[in-house]
Design a protein that fits this description.
The protein is an all-alpha fold. The protein contains 14 helices and no strands. The longest helix is centred in the middle third of the chain and has 53 residues.
Length: about 450
Amino acid sequence: MAGFWGRRRREDEAARQAQDDDLARRARAALVAADERIRTTSDEVEFALAELGETATKPLREGLEAVRTHMAEAFHLHQLNHDEIPDTAEELRTRNARIVQLCDWAEDVLDERTEALREKIALVRQAPKIIDGIRSDVERLRARLPQARETVDRLAGRYSQAALHRVAANPSEAEQLLDFALHSADVSVRRREARRPEEANVALETATEAVRRAGAILDAVEDFEIEALRAQSTLADVIADSREDIVAARPFTQSGVPHAAEVSAAVARLEAALAALPGPGTPSDPFEDLATLREANAALDAAVDKARERASRPVPPLDHVRHAVEAADHAIAVARSVIDGHRGWIGADARTRLVEAQRLRPEIDPLVVPEDTREQALVLARRVQQLAGEALQAAQRDIDSGRPDGDDWGGYGGFGGGRRRPRSGFGGGGDLLGPVLGGVLLGGLMGDMFD
C-alpha cells in the first residue's frame, strides 16, 4: 500500500511539473509576441500620425503608451524568474501566469485601437482614387440637372405650389452641392500636399458627403412624381369610399338615434372635405388632400361605430336608474339601523361592507345622470345595494351567533368601559333571546328591503 501511494504522489508531482513547464513556455512566447507587436504598432503609429494627424491617432498613441508601461512589469517578472535567487514552484507559477495575463491584455488593447484607425488609414491610402471618383460623380450628376429642372417645370402645371415646394428648389440645391464637392476635393489635395493631414481628411469627407446629398435630392424629384401619381390614385379610391360611408351613415343622423348629433357633425365635416377638393385640371396637393380626407373619413367611422354600439346596447331609462338608487339608499338605511342598534354584536365584515357602500353612494346623483353615464350609474347603484345587503346578512349572522366574528365578547359600547354583556337569562339580549329576536327582526327588515 505504501508503494502505491508513493507512486501516486510521484505521478501527481510529474503532472504538476509538466503544467508548470508549459506555463513557462507560454509566458516566454507571449512576452516575445507582445514585444514584437509593440514595435510593429510603433511603426504604424508614425505612419498614421503623418497621414491622419495627432487628433485621429491620439487613442492609439495613448493605448501604446499604456501597453509599454504594463509590459515593463512583465519583463521585470521574467527577470525575477531567472536571477540568482532561488524561487519556489508556486512563485514561478504565479509570475508566469501574470506575464501571460499582461501580454494578452496588451494584444487586446492594440487590436482594439488599431482596428479603429484601419478604415481611416484605408481612406487616406485611397485618397487620390476617391478624389477622382468624386470628380467623376460630379460630372455625372451635373448631366442630370437639366432633366430635373424640366421635371419640376412640368409638375408645376399639375400640382399646387404647396405640393411642389418640397422639390421645387432641388435642382438648384443639387448644383450648389456639386460645386461645393469639387471645391472640397481641391482643398483636400492642397492640404495633403501642405502636410496638413487632418484638414485634408475633413475636406475629403465633406466632398464625399456633398456628392451623396446632391444625388439624393435629384432622386427626390423623380420620386415625387411617382409618389404624387400614387397619391392621386389612392385619393380616387378614398373619395369613392367616403361617399359610400356618408350614405351608410345617414340612418344614424335621424332624431332619436344615440349620438345622432355627433354622427351628423362628422358627416358634415367629410362632405366639406369632399367639396373642398380641387376640380379636374386644377393644380392640387394630392398628399394634403389625401391626408385631410382620410382624417375626416376616420372621424365619421368612429362616430358611426359609437352610435352602432349604443344602438345595440340601449340606454337605461332614467326612472330605472332612480329606482336603483332609491333601493340602494333603502338598503344602506336598513343595514345602518341594524348595525347601529347592535354595535356590541356586529363584527368587522358587516361594518366593512356598510362603509364601502356608503363610500360609493355619493358617486351617483340620481337627478343628473347623462345618457352616456346611465349604464355606469345603474351598475354602481346595484353594487351599492349589494354591499348594503351583504352588510345586513353579515350583521344577521353576528347577532344569531351571539358574538361578532366568533369572538367571545360583548359590550354595550358608549361609556361602558368594556363592561361584558350577560351571556344567560333575559338581561341585555343574552344568548337565549338574542338570536331569536335578531332573526325575527332582521328577517322582517330583509324581507321588506328586497320586496
